[in-house]
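Task 17 of the worksheet. Students: predict the tertiary structure of the chain below and write it out as structure tokens. Keep your answer in the requested format; marks are given for formatting as well as content.
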Amino acid sequence: MAREETEDAIIAYKSILAQIIDNRPSGTRQRLATELGKHRSFVTQITSPTYATPLPARHLATIFRVCHVSAAEQERFLEAYQNAHPGKLPELGASEKLRHLSLMVPDFGDERRNRLLEEAIADLVQKIAAISE
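Model answer:
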């Protein structure tokens, strides 16, 4: 796929996502940023059709969960996403068996250290889940 075609395909799925998010309560972008462990500006870049920044596939399950994306919306979005990034879709079926758990953790006052803590906790939870299967 040519670069221009890829950019058009990215704009297409980001337009769908922008419509979904625009129809959600205010604060959705901030909740999404918090869940992803990113700044709100990152969420804007990956969800706005104005930016050519692709949406990383690893964030899709979180976006669908936080934004309460319906099955029809998800199907429409994933079709457009697959068109832009053939073969890049993660296995999303497992996300249906997840539940959200919030933890209070220390704030180290350092973005990098806070992110490393969050990643370590996420890795630990994934390893525990793998053992239980």
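Marker's comment: Residues 111-132 form the longest helix (22 residues). Residues 3-94 form one domain.
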